[in-house]
Amino acid sequence: MEVVNRFDRRVEVIENLFITMHDGTRLAARVWMPEDANSEPVPAVLEYLPYRKRDDTRERDSLHHPYIAGHGYASVRVDIRGTGDSDGVLRDEYLPSEQEDACEVIAWLAEQPWCDGNVGMMGISWGGFNSLHVAARRPPALRAIISASATDDLYVDNMHYMGGCLLSDNLSEATVMFVNNSLPRIRTSSDRGGARCGANDWRAAVSGPRSGSSTSIAMTTGSARPSRRTTHRSRCR
Questions:
Q1: What is the rounded CA–CA span in Å between residue 229 and residue 44?
Q2: How far is CA 96 from its chain centroid?
Q3: What is the pTM of this model?
Q4: pLDDT digit string, tens, across residues 58-69
């Protein structure tokens, strides 16, 4: 297997910036883009996940996103509301509010000077699901999605249910989400649009564990029959 470490475009990395939603909530993003994107704007590709970009998926992100950016795209990894470095509390998976936030992020990306106005989404599993959900809303700047290991019917074919049967993966996923969302956010002096901290005021820049982390246990268990919870997240047509 060949390791590709040279690309057509030199890549600039923005470690963390904040995208402000209509209600003031800030979503944290890490961005890889061609160094000349401000003078020669490029399409943006969004990956939108509840797994902490600063540590949990950092190694994986550092492999995938530079490759995309090196081939002429702005590759953007965003922590969903209530996860990672983003503000708020994660109440459940695939909520309408998650999709609405994604539409705002897409609109924000399309307006940046380094973006040519065209945005795509990509993702596997959770990121694949929300790519389908957001595409169904048809935000104007969204041009394409890549959705892997995902489905348009969460009750029939999903890690939580398979043919209506509740699976054991529910508990493992709940444990991972509970642990991740109990960890504090990370704030540094290099964050764009966020709290800035010096030698004596770092505590003001780091929030404690989130008050809604126990929701992770409840959100992965439920009815043995299709419910509003599974159906309103499954209809992409």
A1: 31
A2: 15
A3: 0.84
A4: 999 999 999 999
